[in-house]
Amino acid sequence: MEAFSTDYQHGKPTEGMCCLCTMEDITEEDQNYVEFQSYPSMKWQPAQFELCVVQQLIDTQFQQYVDRVKKTDCQAELRRLLASGPPIYVSDKVALPLAEEETDTHVCKLWFAMDGQERSAKLKGAVEGEEREKLWKELKEFIIVEGKEEGDEDDEKKGSGN
Questions:
Q1: What are the b/e assignments for 55-67, b being 16+ CB within 10 Å?
Q2: Model confidence over 54-96: pLDDT tens digits?
Q3: pTM of the model
Q4: Could you give the 3-state DSSP secondary structure of residue 23?
Q5: SS3 106
Q6: How many C-beta atoms lie closer than 10 Å to residue 52's C-beta?
Q7: Is the dihedral of CA 51, 56, 59, 65 positive or negative?
């Protein structure tokens, strides 16, 4: 994984910090603290997941997305998955919330306390540019064009009762 150098002074885990996934403590001693940077604000924040969970997301999130698109039998889920296209960068709305909700688009870098290195937040196997557009087009072929199947629910129907 590509490492970057920076003049930014990274922080340390706060007292009592724990991973929202594993509930393990995040400590200096365990060297499992991670920070992430949002683009374009370029603000750094502490991740609410420990190192092994963030690494697991990097290693699996792209392939899990592709597998879900290919295997789902729910057209509404498929439309939601395909709305923004194949992911490029690691994401988790709870553990890696974007610094500027209105303007930031993605997590661009990660910093691991374990080695003190910054690295790209790009997912393993993720594609960009023309290659991404080609994959997105292939995945869109899983949508049933004839219309909705019985039981499909769109977000617009769910929101109308409020």
A1: bebbeebbeebbe
A2: 999 999 999 999 999 999 999 999 999 999 999 999 999 999 9
A3: 0.82
A4: coil
A5: strand
A6: 14
A7: negative
